[in-house]
Amino acid sequence: MPSFNKKALALSLLLSATAPENMLAFQSSLRTTSRVASRTISSSTRMFSTETETEKEAGPQVVVNEEAYEKVKMDDIVSLCKRRGIIFPSSEIYNGFAGFYDYGPLGAELKKNVKDAWWKNFVTSREDVVGLDSSIIHNPTTWKSSGHLDGFSDPMVDCKETKLRYRADQLFASPIVLEENDETIGWVCVQEANDEDMVKDAKKMAKKMMKSTEHKEKKIQAFSFRDLTEVSEEEMAQIPSPGSGEPTLTMPRDFNLMFQTNVGAMSDASSVAYLRPETAQGIFINFKNALGTSRAKIPFGIAQIGKAFRNEITPRNFIFRSREFEQMEVEYFIPPGDDVWQPFHEKWMQESKEFLIDVGLREDLMGWDVHEGDGLAHYARACTDITFRFPFGTQELMGIAARGNFDLTQHSEGSGKALDYFDDQTKEKYIPHVIEPSLGVDRLILALICSAYAEDEVNGEKRNFLKFSPKIAPVKVAVLPLLKNKEELVSVARELYDELKKRWNVSWDATGAVGRRYRRQDEVGTPFCITIDFDTIEKDAGVTIRDRDTTEQIRLPMDEVIPYLSKQIDGY
Ligand code: GAP
């Protein structure tokens, strides 16, 4: 008969959650690596069944496939997200809606964890940043002042034949030039992708075009791609549209990306308003309110997380570029001066990078992209992107800009209200300058899923799993009673589950062989599995905690479970 006292368990769990000495106790009494655990376990035949066949006795032999990510295609990521309930196409039962996505049960958790981690890192744990949650629709004059009404556009080209619309800077054309005599015999036009894929597509197209001509067997020179904003009218008249295969594209025209709506009962020009294309302007127009009510002193920042909407001409690469997305932005206000902004900019670059690594981005896939010359907005002093190597190529993940005092000056002029700051130390009045780290939640989630994508062999058995950092993993812990039809096991496991659930998103899994349950949790990136076995109720009131990445197991007394997990998940 089980000798375990359930009331004592509940009490010990509660105590362990609050008493700091338990954390010390945990550190001193944390037993063992998996090998020791396996040996301990091997003394009990019942305990064997908490391991998969291949994780038995000798301890796991894990061989990581370091190349797994290199072979991944975007389609693999998209279908993984759908299969595991992370992200679905929006309105799927109506065949979807281009550029919109829905987060499923695990995706919603993941997204919330990412936003909470950002907020904690950049707002609540700092003294110099306050939060804001502004409306999505602002007075439309906001967008006149900010320049979005006149300048927030992308160049587009239309296919006159198919009526399809493309971003001109995402279509690349190249002449097909014969090697023998430099003669241009036609053009190819391909969509932006990584270099290798673009060349592959272009070769296919050139081959097809040459097949029916006298140039069939001839060699051609390497392609020299230019995007369609850089081609002349004569050239455009020869460039085939990706839609029709014929030269039916218009010259590029500007297309404003803001979504329009009407506010109020009237649906005329006077009621036109816009869904915000960035969260930043909500911060600038609240500068005085936030300053006045928080008694902040420069340098200080205002942070906001929220939805942004852009009517992207070609939403693509899944949630990388969508029409509805979320941003996490800080406007960090600093004194003016040519020699002031640089250290702040560098600090924000460093802090942004550290945050991204802390939530689980692979550093080896990250890089810097410093904007120079034409790539820099006219009012900006500097802008550096943090890039990430997605399966479709290296792209911007976030930007850290030094924007001068452009925005506050514009809003001050547009509203007629002074948006300046009085420094009571120097007795100076000035319009502050700003450093703006701006990060897309969805783009970060895609990068996190790519970073977590993992494959290994555990004692010769292939395993695919998601290596999410415990901080952002959608499910933190799974509780597994060894057998679902043994009431004494189930009730103790349930009690532990209920207690853990007060703190984290925890999964209950009582069905199937334990090994199969581990795999199910590995697939969705659950970092810890806790098994309740007969020793728990008969011998040591302990549990087995299995680590997803190493598959190693440790045995811990029940009252040390919460301190252990707190340290692993929350870092304290
Ligand atoms: N306030 C500055 C700003 O909005 P941005 O470079 O246009 O700058 C900042 O956007 C970040 O927002 C990008 O680095 C990206 O992470 C995210 N983002 C922008 N457009 C997006 C889109 N269409 N879909 C998903 N994320 C997007």
Short key terms for the protein model shown above:
572 residues; alpha+beta; BirA Bifunctional Protein, domain 2; Rossmann fold; 3 domains; 7-stranded mixed sheet; 5-stranded mixed sheet; 19 helices; 27 strands; globular; disordered N terminus; binds glycyl-adenosine-5'-phosphate
**What is the highest CATH level, the class of the largest domain?**
Alpha Beta
Dominant shape: globular
CATH architecture of the largest domain: 2-Layer Sandwich
Ligand roster: glycyl-adenosine-5'-phosphate
Provide mean pLDDT, rounded.
89
Strand content of the residues, in percent?
25-35%
Please name the fourth-level CATH homologous superfamily of the largest domain.
Bira Bifunctional Protein, Domain 2
Whole-number radius of gyration?
29 Å
Tell me roughly what share of residues is in helical segments.
Answer: 25-40%
GO molecular function: ATP binding; glycine-tRNA ligase activity
Signal peptide: 1-25
Protein name: glycine--tRNA ligase
Enzyme class: ligase
Question: How would you explain this protein's 3D organization?
Answer:
It comes from Chaetoceros tenuissimus. Residues 1-25 form the signal peptide. This protein has 19 helices and 27 strands. By secondary structure, it is α+β, with helices and mostly antiparallel strands. The chain has three domains: 7-33 and 70-140 and 268-450, 2-Layer Sandwich (BirA Bifunctional Protein, domain 2), CATH 3.30.930; 46-61 and 461-570, Rossmann fold, CATH 3.40.50; 153-255, no CATH class. A hairpin with a 6-residue loop joins strand 5 (153-158) and strand 6 (165-167). Helix 1 crosses helix 2 and helix 1 (6-18) packs parallel to helix 16 (487-501). The chain starts with 5 loop residues before the first helix and ends with a helix. 37% of the residues are buried. Residues 1-50 have low confidence and may be disordered. Glycyl-adenosine-5'-phosphate is lined by residues 278, 280, 310, 312, 321-322, 325, 327, 329, 396-399, 436, 438-440, 442-443.
